[in-house]
Amino acid sequence: MFRNPNQSTDSFAPKPDADSVDYKRRFNTGFQLLSNSEFADAFLIFANISEKTEEPAAFFNLALCEMEAGDDQKAILTLEKALAAIKKTQTPDNDAAFSSGILSKNYAALSQKEKESAAYLSPMPQEYPRLLSKSAKEKIMRVLIDACFRCELWDKIIILSASVQGKGYTNVEKALEAAKRNK
To answer: How many CA atoms lie within 13 A of 138 on its CB side?
Structure first.
């Protein structure tokens, strides 16, 4: 096989396995950079990872960088890729831990506090979509709704918010109210 001189040699390298040590090292470095608001370097890492894999958390973290750069249109596309990727990795959430009344009560209290905060805008760990796919999907939806709000995509907000409406997410309620008012 002859290599096209205009084509990057990276395209001949196999896709990194999301479970490989190198992948995890790169992802964790990007995660730490993003957690420390070092968006430019995190962007480079997650853009590279997202070109080679279809990891929901990598797409999500890349979208956070794109939004920080003011490229909300690109972030919308990236978040849509995250949603498509999460459907491929989706596993049933483990609800057995919540069978105890105490755990259930504490989870509900913590969850309510998070719904009212901006915690959904924090970087997503690599394993989060596999361990808690429903929560990861809702987090992606919330940020996607934020990006649509910033782009004034009112019809899209109405459609997207249907899946998370009534769950007490402050940002979703505000975006939906604005979408109905401006439609």
So the answer is: 18
Query: Could you tell me if 170 and 116 are in contact, meaning their C-beta atoms sit under 8 angstroms apart?
Result: yes
H-type alpha helices, the chain: 21-35, 39-52, 56-68, 72-89, 101-115, 128-131, 133-150, 154-161, 170-182
What is the per-residue pLDDT across 119-153, written as a single tens digit (0 to 9) for each?
A: 899 999 999 998 888 889 999 999 999 999 999 99
| CB-count exposure of residue 36 (10 Å: 0-12, 13-18, 19+) | exposed
The pTM of this model reads 0.83
Give just the sign of the alpha carbon dihedral 102, 134, 70, 47.
positive
Residues 6 or more apart whose Cβ sits within 8 Å of residue 144: 76, 79, 80, 83, 160
CA dist 147 → 12, 85, 161 (Å):
34, 19, 13
Rg (CA), the chain: 18
Looking at residue 95, the DSSP 8-state letter turns out to be -
Residue 121 DSSP label: G
157, two tokens: 């907000």
Each residue of 107-121: pLDDT tens digit? 777 787 888 888 899
Distance CA 81, CA 170 (A): 24
